[in-house]
Structure formats: C-alpha cells, structure tokens
Amino acid sequence: MIIKFSQIIDTFVPDPLNQEPLLVENIPDPLAGEQTWPTEAEMEEAYESNKQRKVVKRKLPRGTSEYQAAWIVDDTDDEGDDSQNDNPDGAGMVIDEKDHSEHDSDSSDIDAVSHFTEKFDQETIGGSEMGDDENLTKEQIEEDIKRIKESNADDEEFPDEVETPLDVPARKRFAKYRGLKSFRTSSWDPKESLPPEYARIFAFDKFTRTQKHVLAKRAELDEESSKDCARIGSYVMLHVKNVPTDVASKLCHPSRRLPVVVSGLLEHESKISVLHFSIKKHDSYEAPIRSKEPLIFNVGFRQFTARPLFSSDNINCNKHKMERFLHHGRFSIASVYAPISFPPVPLIVLKNIDGQQPVIAAVGTLKSVDPDQIILKKIVLTGYPQRVSKLKAMVRYMFHHPEDVRWFKPVELWTKHGKRGRIKETVGTHGSMKCIFNS
Fold it and tell me: Where is the Ribosome biogenesis protein BMS1/TSR1 C-terminal domain (predicted)?
C-alpha cells in the first residue's frame, strides 16, 4: 500500500491594485466626438481667415463632399494652347473646361465620387463566402474549385483588372473608389468613414514604445516579487473566479483526457486590436488561399479562427494594396482581429480540409499592431484604342455609357508603356471617348 501526502507550503492571494483588468473590447463614449459651440473670438478669427482667402468658384459634381472637393485639382486644358506642351504638369485631370482658369499645385488628384445612398454590390471582390459544401454535388464542388483556380491564375497574370459591367453604370458600380494620382504620396485619412463599431478595438499611439514599457515593467515585477511566486517544479492549485458556467463545462470535459495549458499574459494582451502578420504560403500547400477565407491561426500559445485580409508589404508607403489571393514565393501582410501580442511571435496557419486533418497552409511572424493601417482595394479599368492620331486616340469598351465617361473625366489615364493622358470628351452613345496623351 502506498499513501501519498500533500502539504500546502504557501498560499498566494493576488493584490487587486496590481491586477490587470481583463478587458477585451473598448467601451466607446458616444459623446467623445461632440463639439462645443465656438466662442466669439474663434468665430471672428474664422471670419477673418475666410475673408483673406481667395475665393475661386468651382463647378463640382453633384453630391461631392468638402473632403472630396479638397482633392479635386482645377485645371485648364486647351488643345490648341502651346503653353500646355511646355508644362508637363499641366497635363492633369480636367474638371470643367469652360470656367476654370486657375491651376492648383496640389498633386493629390482624385475623382469626385459621391456617396450613393443606395446599397449596391457591397460584396468584396474575391471575398464572397463559399456555400455549404454539404448541399453541393460533386460536380458543383469540382466546378467551384476550378473557378477558384482560374481566378487565382488571372489575378497573378492581370492583377487589379476588372471588367466594367454592361447593365450597371460604372459611376454606381465603382462609387466607393477614388482616383489617386500617386498611390504612395497621395493623402488618405485613416479615420475616414469608419463604422462606430471600430471604436471597440484598442489602439496605441506608439506600439514600439508601449512594448518596451510593458517588457521593462514585467522584468521589474519579476525581480521584486520573486518571493511571492511559486517555485519552479512545484505543484500548484489554481482558483479562477468569475468563470462562466458554459466555459467551465467546456474546459472540464476535455481536461479529463488532455492536459490544460495555463499561460501568463503581459499587460494589454487580453485586449482586441488589429494584428498584421508577415506571412508566406507554405511550399507544400498548392491550393489557392483567398482573402477572407477562414483559417486557423496558431500565434504563440494561442489558437483561433480568423478571416485574414491579405495586402502587399509596402515599406516606404503608409498605404497597402489589398491582394485577392496569397501567392507563392513572396511575403504578404495578413491582417486580422485578434488579441494583442508583442513581437516577435511565430505564426503557423492551418487550413481545414473536409474529412482530413488540418494541413499547414502558411507560416510567418507578427509584424505590428495598428488599427490605422490603410488597406486599399485597387482596380484598373482597361479600354482599347480604336483610332490613333499623334497625341489623340479614340478609346472604346472602358465605359458603356456617356455619363460614365463624363463622371470619370478627372481621373488620369495611363498606358502599359508609361504614357499619361486624360479624357477629352465623350463620343457617341455607347461610352466611346476621345483621349489625349503626353506623347
């Protein structure tokens, strides 16, 4: 007979003053963005400032907001003006050719796309969820896989190119897009048009500085409270309070046959934010991986399911171009909503396959935590020249309605050989247009 005795050596009770609150989501203040009524001095200062500013009357498309109007460049382009050929910067985008005589030096040109109230085609390109596989036949599944592979091949060969729909005006189909003259230097407000729910996630002013402060604070606490900790190799009994009944029941049943892993958290690691991972597709995984496809993320000791949004890794630019697929042979950025972690943290991405064990689809590391990182979806509309005469060209099939040609007139054109141009005027009733280029 063997009798085991257990002896309690120490009992540690946490100090409520030193405990980190287990917040997961931020509780936003609905009145945080409210503005107070300006004082008399502020109103007088604004009046004097507006009086000194030179007022230029501009024609703007209907529905243009003040923020969009600030991006529109006023320009005059006379086809017979010789001074136009001497100034290459003048070959910009034309808003109105009749009344504008002033040139704007701002290079952030944008088309004035109004915010339509109607909800039309809000589905993300390549982001549609697949249907329930249980309701699909074998032929339908094979056809769906074939379609995804063809879409992946087209995305690699012709990135960002989309077809203009025949039955829907382009000004409505692409109402959420704007024309950027430079993807790298054009300004973009990261706080623009955010939903109210986005305030529920946490953000840092300086994430690197916060990480150094958290790690230094943890090292200091470890040195001071070494006497108030359980010794390495000793058995402990943990008492966790305020655990929901459903969570406790889910934890108790697996613990009878599998070990339970307990890990400590650093400050802020229980909070939700936007994590950006530098990710690369694994060499052994050949199937296409679409953006917003459910994947299993193994980040350090954590495991969760997320739908990552893939984007290009631009070092010298604060804007990142969304990618529809994760391609072989190069690193991309995968952005997900997840609990905060501090790099370096390894990442292993698993993909569930029906009837099989999850397989490794990608690997990577945590790069940053930044809810203000801008991820833009870029599209390219293509047309085909019908007739060419020196600097002029007649272009077809980019648009199918004359109103669309006039709507996208402020956007600059470019060719695959680097020539720049603009829309001169619409021709006919089927969306053909006369364009002029710089050479």
Answer: 161-439
